Amino acid sequence: MPVTDQQVAALHAQLAGNLAEHKRLLASLDKKADSRGYSALLTAAFYTAVDSRFTRDSTLDEVTEFVADIRARSERIRDALDPRIAERVLISAFTNGDLDDLAAEELTKTKMFLLAGIISDQHLDAAGLDEFIAKARANADELLS
Amino acid sequence: MPVTGEQVTALRAFLAFDPVYERLTRELAASGRWPGFGELVYSAFATAVRRRFAPTWTSAQVVRFTAQVRNGLRTEGVDLDPLATEILIRQALGERVTSSHDDNAQAQVMMFVLGELMSEEHLDESGLDAFLAEARAMANARLAAQAVASGPVPDGSWSIRPATAAEAGIGQISLSVERKNFARGLYLSEGFAVVDASDPQSDTMIKSLTHGQSTSAGKTRGST
To answer: Is B80 left (phi over 0), alpha (psi -120 to 50) or beta?
Structure first.
């Protein structure tokens, strides 16, 4: 089953910085039925965002600086985002590294913070965000097919 | 027992990037003259951190500094634990935050970050001497406070130990400390709060011994 409009709306609200609307839409998703689609959309959005920010030639120093920059934005993010895990997750996105030892919940949380950080840095307007999400949705549908 | 000159010499060698440091610390460890050296290293670390960040600092500065130090050390094959580093720095700046990292991780952080901070300072001989004097004074104050809290009264300035006071049902203890005394920061980090700052040179501080309760029942005075 492909990604639904409701799943897209939930992610869109988060990346647009509308956290109350994101929470409301997320709560309205069915934990079972929407789980696979939303997870695929998030994963696709994360990889799409990482591809736009890093390349295979990016260094560990750049990744460390980027993670620090995100964690420096608030004490809440600092405490929620483990720097070593965040660095591993980012590096694995462009090196196909193994993350099997990470708990699914930790992995999802880390990807969400990193995704939000990358998108925030791109200062996308409404059309730009729509374009990014359409690309992520297409990639997610491909994953799900 | 206060910090010894031998311990200061060993730390001085480390801070001056003098290879003799390794021999001096080995001798300290082998001869049983190590006690107090850890306190001196911590105090040097805290002094250097406060020089770098105090009086005003932000969480963001600590996070970015930690990343910068990690990137610098990575080229030397050192993978510094970022969370242990941030927490130790925040603790040195007076934030009440607990660390779950073991002594080895914390010791590694202190030595590497201290080395990094000192290389930023570009101290000359007299500057290094002044820095070490500051660190030594702080270490001695911390050692004295530990002795007060857990052992015999070292110099008679305390009439009763905090642990004994709590056992005796005393609700709080107070002390007077000069503002320029490094021990003042230590007392703040140990839960003392300033209750009277009217004196031009010193503060009166109180620590509750009844976990979260504010009571004036029973007082013990000390001075430093």
So the answer is: beta
Q: And the tokens for B103?
A: 């002594």
Query: What tens digit of pLDDT does each residue of A113-142 get?
Result: 999 999 999 999 999 999 999 999 999 999
B82 to chain A, closest Cα gap in Å:
7
Q: What amino acid occupies position B199?
A: D
Q: How many helices (H) and strands (E) does chain A have?
A: 8, 0
> Would you kindly state where each structural domain of chain B is located, as residue ranges?
5-143, 158-223
Residues of B in contact with A72 (CB under 8 A): 59-61, 63-64
What's the DSSP call for residue B205? E
Residue B175, number of CB atoms within 10 A of its CB: 22
- Give the residue from B70, B66, B62 showing the smallest Cα distance to B94: B62
Residue with tokens 């990343």: B67
Q: Which amino acid is at B160?
A: I
Q: For residue A35, give how far its alpha carbon lies from the nearest alpha carbon of chain B (Å).
A: 32
Asked if pLDDT for residue B4 goes beyond 70, the answer is yes
ipTM above 0.85, yes or no: yes
A79 touches chain B (CB under 8 A): no
